[in-house]
Write a structure and sequence with these properties.
By secondary structure, the chain is an alpha+beta fold. Helix content is 56%, strand content 10%. The chain folds into 5 domains: 7-75; 79-180, Beta Barrel (OB fold (Dihydrolipoamide Acetyltransferase, E2P)); 210-452, no CATH class; 455-492; 520-625, no CATH class. The strands form 4 sheets. A 5-stranded mixed beta barrel has the order 1-3-4-8-5. It has a two-stranded antiparallel ribbon with strand order 6-7. The chain has a two-stranded antiparallel ribbon with strand order 10-11. β3 (103-113) and β4 form a beta hairpin.
Length: 627
């Protein structure tokens, strides 16, 4: 018997369709809203089979109109007309700052710019060094700039626009003059509490990874370890997702229930815990999706209504798209909804397929969820990040249960720290062993040969092989022949350009690293002082050995004398002298030409014509794009 479309699902789905379609067909005309109203009135007056269709049409048109209104609001900018100007400004830091290779970037709301009071969100760029605290109000001189367009596979302008940001503000320094108030201040205190006490007493990589698990912030994690998390398919555990929101709700509600609270009070405690966690970690799409779903499930129980997981998912999507229709382009939105939908559809089938095998029920469920998420998110990770993990199922079967336990223990540690520091320290030590185990598992699974696919050729081989195996299993002769021909074609077709260019530096192998002892304030005593670079230049015994190793990584042809072991960020511009991430085998004669460019950039920095961060960024782009 064919499944019937639930009217409530159709209604909310139609609204989502209209909201998403506003990205393609944008209209804020009142006529569109009027047409939506007519369709909805006809729906109310119609008792026949056309009623559902009229409801869907009305909600699609209503969503289309509201999506256009929201997009127009997100694209509106008072400060865009002032791009290229600099004024004394007062800004409010609204998110945790992120320290990049060359600068510090953070979302901020401009409270005052000269005589203007725009209340507009911008991307604030600051020099490396002191990080502005979340929630602080800063006084600074801001230079307004337009976001950069498509560059090296990343379009900063589009990425910021989708977040409602049209302007980048740059400043050479700042002064903290206050803190924000109200709900934002409460969120800042929650965030600071979890960041400080969730990993109570821990330091180094264990603290950095545990903070990422709790708050979704990867600052301080070793880049090599992050690469292993990506390759293994475990990178999502370092972000805040639905699993963690569910763990927070379940943990808080379960603890309240164990302490003697009734079911009603326990549900309220769970809702309060979810609200607090959302405030602490920020309003990411996956977090809001899970929070809305958890709230609807709890409210359904409180009001004695039947729970509907699909309805909860659709309502969460409608809420997110109603606030920002640009979310359809967001990788977090796509991954979250694709994964949850797949869990609903694929997991039961995998669990049924494992029946009859010696697999415990809990493990079968975990395998089903990992398989569903891996299959559903693979297209998203390929189109968004150009990589697909092949070990994601076993990696997550082991890693996800560990992460859930670590999150709950970290929250308990944060709760205990203000009243029982020794107990909190002991719990944190136990959690530290869990972090070490998770890091080890990420390195093992991510270090497996062919753990991930990162090229179109490899992806084509993988797809053709999967189709061939499926056709042989199902005995589909024509499909097997087609898959075999596709395999032969891909194998015989000449490969394209190698992942590592013979001329340019690799963004992943050689991202660049800075000398922590050099900043804009001390260039007169460091890079602008004659002879200073000779005091920090590494010995040739070190660079020659590293050159041979990196020549193999870069697949360089010829002998070592054909290459210069070059600093990606030169010593004259504050590059790290010995970090392998800042050294690479640059071919001659290009290496000689670039030495001259480096000297020119150094002269511009020392004469005040260019900031140190601008010169470092320009040198990085030069060597990554032109060699």
């Amino acid at each position: 018997m064919p499944a019937r479309l639930h009217p409530a699902h159709a209604a909310v789905g139609s609204l989502c369709l209209g909201l998403a379609a506003a990205n393609v067909v944008r209209s804020t005309t009142p006529m569109l809203l009027g047409c939506a109203g007519v369709a909805l009135l006809l729906c109310l007056a119609n008792d026949g089979p056309a009623r559902l269709g009229l409801l869907a049409v009305g909600l699609v048109l209503a969503g289309l109109w509201w999506g256009g209104v929201r997009l127009a609001a997100l694209d509106r900018s008072v400060l865009a007309a002032r791009i290229g100007t600099a004024e004394r400004a007062l800004v409010e830091v609204t998110a945790p700052p992120r320290a990049g290779t060359f600068d510090v970037r953070v979302r901020a709301k401009v409270l005052r710019y000269g005589s203007l009071r725009p209340g507009e969100t911008v991307l604030l760029e600051l020099p490396r060094g002191r990080l502005p605290p979340q929630g602080s109000i800063l006084s600074l001189v801001a230079l307004l700039q337009a976001p950069r367009g498509p560059e090296n596979g990343f379009d900063q302008r589009a990425w910021l626009r989708h977040q409602g940001i049209q302007v980048v503000a740059r400043a050479d320094g700042f002064r903290v003059v206050g803190r924000r108030r109200g709900l934002g201040a409460f969120a800042d205190r929650l965030h600071g509490w979890l960041s400080r006490d969730g990993a109570f007493g821990l330091s180094g990589q264990r603290r950095a990874v545990l903070n990422a698990i709790v708050l979704g912030e990867t600052q301080g994690i070793d880049p090599g370890l992050l690469a292993d998390y990506r390759a293994s398919g475990l990178y999502h555990v370092l972000a805040v997702d639905g699993l963690k929101v569910t763990a927070v709700a379940g943990g808080a509600g379960g603890l309240a229930f164990l302490l003697g609270a009734g079911r009603f009070l326990a549900e309220l405690v769970a809702l309060g815990a979810v609200a607090g966690y959302v405030l602490a970690v920020g309003t990411h799409p996956s977090v809001i999706r899970a929070a809305v779903a958890a709230a609807l499930v709890s409210l359904a129980w409180l009001t004695a209504r039947q729970r509907d997981r699909w309805q909860a998912l659709l309502v969460a999507a409608a809420a997110l798209l109603a606030w920002n229709p640009y979310f359809v382009y967001d990788a977090g939105f796509q991954l979250s909804f694709a994964a949850v939908s797949a869990i609903f559809i694929v997991t039961p089938r995998v669990v049924r397929a494992l029946e009859g095998y010696p697999v415990p029920g809990g493990l079968a469920q975990l395998i089903g969820v990992s398989t569903a998420c891996g299959l559903a998110t693979a297209p998203v990770t390929w189109f968004q990040f150009h990589q697909v993990s092949l070990v994601t199922v076993p990696a997550n079967v082991v890693g996800v249960p560990l992460v859930a336990e670590m999150l709950v223990l970290a929250l308990l540690t944060a709760a205990a720290a203000p009243i029982a520091a020794p107990v909190a320290a002991a719990m944190a030590v136990v959690n530290g062993y869990g972090v070490a185990a998770l890091n080890g598992w990420a390195r093992i699974s991510g270090g497996v040969p062919f753990a991930q696919v990162t090229s179109g050729r490899s992806l084509a081989l993988l797809l053709a092989t999967c189709v061939l195996l499926f056709s042989l299993w199902k005995r589909r002769e024509l499909l097997a022949v087609a898959a075999t021909l596709a395999l032969v074609f891909v194998l015989l077709r000449p490969g394209g350009e190698t992942a590592l260019s013979p001329q340019r530096a690799s963004w992943t192998v050689t991202p660049g690293a800075l000398n922590s002892s050099v900043d804009q304030q001390n260039i007169g005593e460091t890079i602008c002082k004659h002879g200073w670079t000779s005091t920090i230049r590494p010995p040739t015994s070190y660079t020659n050995a590293l050159k041979l190793k990196q020549m193999r990584v870069y697949r360089r042809r010829g002998g070592p004398t054909n290459y210069q072991e070059d600093h990606l960020i030169s010593l004259e511009l504050g590059g790290d002298p010995t970090d392998p991430r800042n050294l690479w085998p640059e071919p001659y004669p290009r290496a000689g030409d670039v030495d001259g460019i480096e000297n020119q950039l150094n002269a511009q920095v020392c004469s005040g014509q260019m900031t140190l961060a601008d010169a470092q960024r320009r040198e990085s782009i030069l060597k990554h794009t032109a060699g």
